[in-house]
Amino acid sequence: MAEIQLGVIEARYADMIWAHEPVTSSELVKLTAAEFNWKRTTAHNVLRRLIDKGLFRNENGVVTSVISRDEFYSMQSRQYVENTFSGSLPAFIAAFTQGGRITAEDAEAIRRMIDRAKE
User: Fold this and answer.
1) Which residue range forms the structural domain that includes residue 113?
2) 47, part of any domain
């Protein structure tokens, strides 16, 4: 799937949609007015951009996700490792842990994830 770039406000709006879905577009107008102080047209314009990027759909005024929040942030994480560390997960982990320690619980959780991924 193509890389999806979101600005800060788009990401906050996407998180709002994921938190409330399925949600009507009129409810999103109310939520964005309260959270961002947006007018109806701004809420609809930004929603249209998110739909055009392939994150959401609006069917009969009900907005739902095409890509879940977890799927989206997983894609973003993989893309970050690819772009920043040439796709090397060990290089990412080395950078992440440089100068710090991880707990025994975190290390065990990572081992379980690796074991599941190898299967």
Assistant:
1) 88-119
2) yes
Q: Residue 74, SS3?
A: helix
* 63 vs 18: CA distance, rounded Å: 10
Q: What is the pLDDT of residues 8-37, one digit of tens each?
A: 999 999 999 999 999 999 999 999 999 999
Q: Which token pair is 14?
A: 């996407």
Which DSSP symbol is given to 66?
Answer: S
Same domain, 32 and 61: yes
Provide the β-strand partners of residue 24. 62
Contact predicate 50/5, CB 8 Å: no
Tokens standing for residue 59: 């069917």
Q: How far is CA 67 from the centre of its chain?
A: 9
> What is the rounded distance in angstroms from the CA atom of residue 87 to the CA atom of residue 114?
16
CA distance 107 to 93: 11
Contact 61, 24 (CB under 8 A): yes
